[in-house]
Design a protein that fits this description.
The protein has 3 domains: about 45 residues, Uridine Diphospho-n-acetylenolpyruvylglucosamine Reductase, domain 2; about 120 residues, 2-Layer Sandwich (Uridine Diphospho-n-acetylenolpyruvylglucosamine Reductase, domain 3), CATH 3.30.465.10; about 120 residues, CO dehydrogenase flavoprotein, C-terminal domain (Enolase-like, domain 1), CATH 3.30.390.50. Helices cover about 35% and strands about 25% of the residues. A 5-stranded antiparallel beta sheet has the order 4-5-10-6-7. Strands 11-12-13-14 form a 4-stranded antiparallel beta sheet, with helices on both faces. A 3-stranded parallel beta sheet has the order 1-3-2, covered by helices on one side. Helix 11 packs across helix 12. The protein is globular and about 60 Å long. It starts with a strand and ends with a helix.
Length: about 300
């Protein structure tokens, strides 16, 4: 591994100052399960590693019925999927977070790191998009909020500017009669990368028989995760038992996918799976929404 300086930061302001001073020569360490590997294999060169794990703001995991869920950028995966409030209100997020690596990785890996790594195949991003997640950042010009669907600009690249870093993620409280889910296809269950991943959320009408709205997002089928508002719009006002409605959304997802062929899958396979997983995850989201209706 190359030599570099290390600072364990204790405030958001300190991180911003260091990142602004070092520019592209600095990287943020939250979980490190991707970054440390990249450094060991010399896939990236840095002069400074800024450890943010000791900053209170990046370690928060708080739910409020009005403001929703706030997840600090350094909160490890196991804390998220083990939290009873998260499991109750955001099972779609739990679907995704529990798939990030194996048990050992989940003890260190963070939702913030998974997002900032900006892998097209990241498991967390389609789920966060479906749940209307928002990135809360801090930089030389203060704080700003960025919708998760806009955050990644290319593989390994984000909208973060010089001196700016991700502090937390905010997810709105679940809407009445809503449900969400995430599904992926991989050759193996653990320690593998998604061939295709799909996140979806739905809101049903009061009778639980038709869609009021839906959000659908794809992973691993384009240079960045894809938000598909047209696929969600295809379900608005449609009867849940109308197989044609979900099929239309699935075919929109298939058409929107822009995958490549690599060692994990072909273009044809990934486009086919985009439709299959969209159908399945919508059914899962509907089932969860109906459970929530029965609880009301």
């Amino acid at each position: 591994m190359q030599a570099f300086d290390y600072v364990a930061a204790h405030s958001v302001e300190q991180v911003v100052s260091l990142l602004n001073q070092y520019g592209d020569d600095a990287r943020v360490l939250s979980g490190g399960t991707d970054l440390i590997v990249q450094l060991r294999e010399r896939r990236c060169q840095i002069g400074l590693l800024v450890d943010i794990k000791h900053i209170p703001e990046v370690n928060t995991l708080v739910y409020d019925p009005i403001d929703g869920l706030q997840i600090g950028a350094a909160v490890p995966c196991y804390r998220i999927y083990s939290d009873p409030v998260v499991k109750n209100h955001y099972p779609g997020l739990v679907d995704a977070v529990s798939l990030i690596g194996g048990i050992q990785i989940q003890g260190r890996a963070t939702l913030g790191g998974n997002l900032c790594n900006a892998s097209p195949a990241a498991d967390s991003i389609p789920a966060l998009i479906a749940l209307e997640g928002v990135c809360v950042t801090s930089g030389p010009n203060g704080h700003r909020e960025i919708a998760v669907e806009d955050f990644c600009t290319a593989p390994g690249q984000t909208l973060l500017q010089q001196g700016e870093f991700l502090v937390s993620l905010r997810i709105p409280p679940p809407k009445p009669r809503s449900g969400a889910g995430y599904l992926r296809f991989t050759p193996r269950n653990e320690m593998d990368i998604a061939v295709v991943g799909v996140g979806a959320s739905v809101v049903l009408d009061e009778s639980g028989t038709s869609f009021e709205s839906a959000r659908i997002a794809l992973g691993a089928v384009a240079p960045t995760p894809l938000f598909l508002p047209e696929a969600g719009a295809a379900l608005n006002g449609k009867d849940i038992d109308d197989d044609g409605a979900i099929e239309r959304a699935a075919q929109i997802a298939r058409s929107a996918a822009r995958p490549i062929t690599d060692m994990r899958g072909t273009i044809a396979q990934r486009k086919y799976l985009s439709a299959v997983l969209t159908r399945r995850v919508l059914i899962r989201a509907v089932e969860r929404a109906r459970v929530n209706i029965r609880k009301e």
